[in-house]
Records
---
Amino acid sequence: MYKASQGIEATPEEQQATNIVTKYLTQFLNADKVVFAFPLWNMTVPAVLHTYIDYLNQAGHTFKYTAEGPVGLIPNKKVVLLNARGGSYSEGPAAAAEMSVNFISNIMRFFGVQDLSTVIIEGHAQSPDQAASIIETGLKQASDAAVTF
Ligand SMILES: Cc1cc2nc3c(=O)[nH]c(=O)nc-3n(C[C@H](O)[C@H](O)[C@H](O)COP(=O)(O)O)c2cc1C
């Protein structure tokens, strides 16, 4: 992608990799609304989602650098994050350790997204006796969010 941005010729393998990045980046840029549905895995996102975010992080497309610092380029996209995690991270010291919702939220804000909402189902592994009601409540919140999305 760097070579392409600088007009440097890419090898066939690099061109193939660049085509994949461009395909997903274009799909994301063309969408009015985007749903990210992801679990918390080992305090962060699954590697495939990290790779997807790497595809989207392209200066000149989702953000740009200015003399005043980086500016997001997609302020009008509507984004919702649907997250599930077995433990509870919404409050206390665990909140800072959580790097999936925090990560994707930070990236979306970096891209300039203003309409960002989140539905989290959490604690069903930590509190198995409450798992059924935690999941039921969370799924209801997801259904309600879908009505206005
Ligand atoms: C590989 C792996 C790692 C996980 N790491 C965490 C974790 O760090 N913290 C946590 O609270 N739950 C963790 N979990 C539990 C999942 O977040 C939980 O099962 C969640 O419901 C997964 O979403 P899903 O039900 O949509 O698959 C992990 C699960 C797996 C399979």
---
Amino acid sequence: MVDFSMSEEHKSLIETARRFTRERIIPIAAECDRDSKFPMDVFKAAWEIGLVNPCIPDEYGGSGMGELENALITEQLAYGCAGIQTSITANQLALTPIKLGGNDEQKKKYLGMLVAEPVLASYATSEPDAGSDVAGLKTRFTQHGDDYVLSGQKCWITNASFASFYVIFATKDPALKHKGIAAFIVDRDTPGLRVGKKEDKLGQRASDTAQIFLDDVKVPKANLLAPEGQGFKLAMETFNQTRPDIAAGATGLMQRALDESAAYAKERKTFGVPIGQHQLVQAMLAEMAIRIEGTRLLYMKAAWNLDNGVRDPMTSSIAKAYGADSAMATAVDAVQVFGGNGYVKEYPVEKLMRDAKVLQIYEGTSQIQRLVIARQILA
Ligand SMILES: Cc1cc2nc3c(=O)[nH]c(=O)nc-3n(C[C@H](O)[C@H](O)[C@H](O)COP(=O)(O)OP(=O)(O)OC[C@H]3O[C@@H](n4cnc5c(N)ncnc54)[C@H](O)[C@@H]3O)c2cc1C
């Protein structure tokens, strides 16, 4: 049976996230964007009221919510600022491989850490020469008795500057491609691990993005998350679970673009009438609404699949690709509705356009999503 109604719990969760966004995120979003500053106090406040790490299972002390609830929160936070939302929700990218591949001890320790304190964690596959081509990563691990030693470089890592631990993908030998990849949980204070330059980004500037250098970093066997040959699969399965959330963020960003555009279209007059009375402006508003509705339905279906044990990477990728591309198109249209005012920082829509762009890049570019989708069509 198909049921599009929201439960009372869902409505209450949305209201909590919406109020938090209105009171804590919207007032500081422009300043955090301008100064490229992640508001740690806002992260802590979100954690206090249960908006962070919602999918940690009850048995590890979490609230045991599903991917749908996670996505509903993300949509609301992204309405306020996609950069702040990305940093608040990025723990999901680090905790998902632990949920999927970790043993009981690892889950107790690391999921428990996220439950006990408002800390951040990062997920690291990307490297200077391996972004889309995850199987091409070059960070190496070698086994020394009961320990592993990691050496290499990661880049573009969300929250790297603040993370308490990292899920790091490394290979025994780059020539083995996906067959050589393993995954490790690495504590931040491990000798040899150094966080590098923070990126000065076009958009989502409130979100921290930095490099990680690994110089003979000794990792105990207890922190091996996926053995050689299993790391690549774990990385792909993680993306399958987290991509719907990118679509949820895209939905929040687009809803903001539409609300701002509709309000402006009622006020701004040209040729003696509000611009909202011009049919070509109406068409842009209608297109925004079409994309919002499409993306919202897609992320909900993809999240429902995950919560109900239906393995369907195609829908996750369709949600991500459609959502990201729609967000970019919608933010560009919002700037167009505002005319010259859309092009300056006194108005909120130029930030939406800058923030939207990375949705087409991180967690698999829009091109890579199409490859995933086509592969399944042709399988
Ligand atoms: C703000 C930000 C945050 C990020 N956070 C994280 C993070 O937390 N952890 C992490 O591991 N990574 C993270 N990333 C990295 C991100 O996942 C990569 O940037 C992304 O996967 C693309 O890789 P690349 O930048 O190396 O581009 P490339 O792989 O070099 O791609 C360049 C272009 O070529 C296209 N392309 C590549 N291969 C193909 C192909 N086979 N067919 C068609 N087109 C192709 C791409 O679509 C793209 O348009 C982040 C990136 C950014 C910008």
